[in-house]
Specification:
Layout lengths: L6 E6 L3 E7 L3 E6 L2 H14 L3 E5 L6 H9 L4 E4 L2 H9 L7 H15 L9 H29 L5 H28 L2 H10 L6 H10 L8 H8 L7 E2 L2 E2 L9 H17 L3 H10 L4 H22 L5 H7 L4
Parallel strand pairs: 1-4, 4-5
Antiparallel strand pairs: 1-2, 2-3, 6-7
Helix pairs in contact: 1-2, 3-4, 5-6, 5-8, 7-8, 8-10, 9-12, 10-11, 10-12, 11-12
């Protein structure tokens, strides 16, 4: 007789890992450190799980996720809103770490989210550098905005911090350049994406590192993954306005800047944007549509391993 499928839910906190196993009803608590993670890995290897689901918890789950992946256990890292919404939909409103682990295991069994490979060490390192660069740029913007309205006695301190941040940004960009050159695929991908007017170096690098699915999904799937796919809001005879939601916020931010530039200079995106504006669409709606069209073009280029060509992009962007 075939053994039943085993589903594991793990609630991650800074200090502990709460674990629940279905259908056996096994639960346990492990330390969220290297020793505790390895102890949990050995325990799960003995159970032969069908799927292990872990919530993304601001990076606290990273060590466990890679320990499970290295042990070749089927791990899916999901947005914490998904198991929480599932728990509430099934009448579970109470919330503790142990209850959360149980609900994550139930979510794993019912929904079975897709197991995706985790990025390798080089990709992790480059992604961390890009994240740090975004943080530095955000701080620079804030400090420059404060400088003009600050009292004269405070301005030298703010200026000193701005100078340090600028030096740190330059150092980060140099280190990012070094990491890019170490991987033979990244410079080629970066060059391919930058050939599209509107896509700058930062956008190309962000898409290369933080959107590895680019070129592996169809146009609807990639738009939904990034959060540029409009969702229906209909009920009976009512036809509500379509809204976009979810996705990867920092990818959307890069695409927004790229689409804004492309709406002025890209030979495909510019006329598309102008048609939408002439049709009475608000600027924000038109730019959102441009973001999706630009993403579709980039996805098609990577999928087909082709260079940027305005005529090809116009034909393929509606069919891929």
């Amino acid at each position: 007789m075939e053994s039943p499928a085993v589903f594991v839910g793990i609630d991650v906190s800074k200090a502990e890992l709460e674990v629940y196993v279905r259908p056996q009803g096994i639960c346990g608590t492990f330390a969220n450190d290297a020793a505790g993670q390895q102890k949990l890995v050995k325990r799960l290897q003995g159970l032969g799980p069908t799927l292990i689901v872990v919530e993304a918890t601001g990076g606290l789950e990273r060590g466990l996720a890679y320990a499970l992946a290295e042990a070749e256990l089927p791990i899916a890292v999901v947005n914490p809103r998904q198991p929480r919404a599932f728990a509430q939909a099934t009448g579970q409103w109470a919330k503790t770490d142990k209850l959360d682990a149980r609900e994550i295991a139930r979510f794993a069994e019912a929904v079975r989210p897709e197991v995706r490979p985790l990025p390798d060490a080089a990709t992790q390192a480059l992604s961390a550098l890009l994240t740090r660069r975004r943080q530095i740029v955000s701080q620079l913007t804030a400090e420059r905005n404060r400088l003009g309205s600050a009292l004269p006695s405070i301005q030298p301190r703010i200026q000193a911090h701005i100078t340090w941040l600028e030096e740190e940004q330059a150092a980060l960009e140099a280190e990012i350049d070094t990491h890019i050159q170490r991987n033979p695929e990244w410079p080629a991908r970066e060059q391919q994406l930058q050939a599209v007017k509107g896509v700058g170096r930062v956008t190309a690098r962000t898409l290369t590192v933080d959107l590895p699915e680019l070129g592996t999904l169809n146009r609807k799937q990639i738009a939904a993954l990034v959060g540029r796919a409009p969702f229906n809001r209909d009920s009976g005879p009512r036809r509500g306005r379509r809204h976009i939601q979810g996705g990867r916020a920092h990818i959307r931010s890069c695409l927004y800047m790229a689409a804004t530039c492309a709406a002025r200079f890209n030979p495909v995106i510019k006329p598309f944007y102008e048609r939408l504006i002439k049709a009475g669409k608000p600027h924000k709606v038109a730019i959102t549509a441009c973001m999706r069209k630009l993403l579709t073009i980039l996805n098609a280029m990577v999928k087909n391993n082709t260079a940027w060509d305005p005529n090809f992009s116009q034909r393929s962007s509606t069919s891929i």
